[in-house]
């Protein structure tokens, strides 16, 4: 048993209670470097009281995410047991469970009008200003920033709502990953369409094939949908350009089909400089 590994895992978020329960059980069997874990999935299932399918799926997820690696096999009465190692670097990269420290300062005496010299500990002076000094200006959150954050939250909720309901797991992590993608420059509407495309594509999948929302967004599997959206837009632009070129050719040739060209199309052709107002008039149309 390693208290170091157990503490490291206890201070990180793993996405669900089942995942946390399994990693804590494995940490209890590990050496200080995370190695030497050999226990069957049946043993994990009996001690955690989770279903066998949950244990198997979670171990596979940990291996795919790099949190666990296989280091060997050990013979047992039923064949062999896989030996695992917990990768501390991957665990340390996970989101911590602790709330961020907020430095609010400590007020011992009433607020003074002039800056103090700070307390001296071992010859080192403290801060000249306390956070609640009358000349310390705290900038409150602006209404504009609060409104922007509210819009971001609503967009993230809307995107997650498009994900298959039975596969939504760890809403907090999923929403955080969605917000991170949007802040990185992904258009919310594009991300929403990518989620809807995956939901339609994976409709009817068996449980062994599905991907839960926290992992789906963590592995950036929406990028496939974005690539398809970009490809469809490019095709649409090419078709639109081809259509404009055909209309412009009719006008240049004064083709009889020119009478079917609408005023909006004429304005578009002139704006893109494919035809001139004079050419439009020569074809019997009004620019």
Automatic annotation (TrEMBL):
Protein known as: Helix-turn-helix domain-containing protein
Region (Disordered): 103-145
